[in-house]
Amino acid sequence: MEELQKKYAPEGLTIIAVSVDEKAENMQRFLKSTKVSFTVVRDAQRKLVAAADIHGMPTSFLIDRSGKIRFLHTGFDRDQTPRQYNKEIEELLKEPKP
User: pTM to 2 decimals?
Assistant: First the structure.
């Protein structure tokens, strides 16, 4: 995600990560060891997870400029997922601003 943030933020990409760690210190420990330049929020009670009907972790939503979910990814494949993210992000960034 950090690579995507660095590559596409100047073009308008915004990444918001949601941690479901029950203990805040677990999330903080991870963030100290893995520096990120995007926003990370905590959903310890999993309200967002329930509202979005998420069944697997990690789950990623790519949302277009108008706020519509356009792509959904559950799980992560080190080879395929980054390529797919790049393709879909580039597609979305080419669309005109509303």
Answer: 0.83
